[in-house]
Amino acid sequence: MKAVVYEEYAPDDDYKKILRVKDIDEPKPRADEVIFTVKAAALNYNDIWGMRGQPVPVPLPHVSGSDAAGDVTAVGEDVKDIKIGDRVVSHSNMSCRICSACTDGREFDCIKRTIWGFQTGPNWGAFQESTHLPEVNVSRIPEGVSYEHAAAASMTILTSWHMLVGRARIRPGQTVLIMGGGSGVGSFGIQIAKLYNCDVIATASPDKLDKCKELGADYAVDHRKEDWHKEVRAITKEIAKRKGEAPGIDVSFDHIGQTHWNKQLTLLKYGATLVSCGATTGYDAKTDLRHIFFKGTNILGSTQGTKAELDQALYWMGQGKIKAAIDSTYSFGQAAEAHAKMLSGKGLFGKILMKPEGA
């Protein structure tokens, strides 16, 4: 079968030099695994890290991709629930399932945790015509949700749901700031916050502001402006006047990091929460501690989530309350072009998908 394979790293981001569509062996299911054809797969930034060989040297030869959706074609002898013919999507957080963290419902804190398609291999990921995963690492796709939308959601909707619902404990009526609303996690963050009937302020580059509003954001602010936080502060005053409460942000949803960190802290109400899943602009963020201790601020880290959380989020997709934002779709043969677009980020809104030829 065909797969997008690389056998060396590209620290210079020259993807054309290393990415090749090659024949690899078709997978056979282990006792606890399912095999499924890949109808659609989505790109994530860990695909870039893998090709760079940093911060983790991934196994070579490597098939990347952590989000895949398709049809089950075979199951192992110990598989209990998933059946041949089921439409499934990957849950890429692979944990041991037996340690104290896993049995406490915190599989994302498992010290043996790996991300499928990033740390797994050789030749084991989403960018192949057929792939395999343990039964516990696939979820059924709800009726009415396409393979494309399921693949575009898999990792990012889980990350966003865990940030807002699992970690920040979002409540109806709060004022929520979604940083980087044009990204995959940001686009889901907007919709999850609106699902909870919150007032949502999204930030994005100028070309993405209207699209953030189309997803449900009540306000959209250009975060490339030096004084973007002043505009957000003015909006919170409008909201506070309407609600009869103190101005400010209840929950700030962050994955931008260094460049916007401290300004987010200035916007928070007393007892508010900032939840972070990444640091796109850098990790060495300046923090004015007065905004932490004096205001009783909650700073929460977040990564991945549980399979139960993925199923919860997929349920709302099936109800039509949340949808995936898809930017573009490429074939396996266009893998280098697809990854270059993700890296540049120019004009990008939502997820980039790849499909096998003829899928």
Automatic annotation (TrEMBL):
UniProt superkingdom: Archaea
The record's InterPro entries line, in alphabetical order, gives: ADH-like_C, ADH-like_N, ER, GroES-like_sf, NAD(P)-bd_dom_sf, Zinc-ADH_QOR/CCCR
Tell me where in this chain the Enoyl reductase (ER) domain is found. Answer: 17-354
Q: Does the keyword DNA repair apply?
A: no
Q: Mind listing the GO molecular function terms for this protein?
A: alcohol dehydrogenase (NAD+) activity
The protein's UniProt keywords, in alphabetical order, are:
NADP, Oxidoreductase
User: What Enzyme Commission number(s) appear in the record?
Assistant: 1.1.1.1
**Per its UniProt record, what Pfam families does this chain match?**
ADH_N (PF08240), ADH_zinc_N (PF00107)
Q: Supply the name of the protein.
A: Zn-dependent oxidoreductase
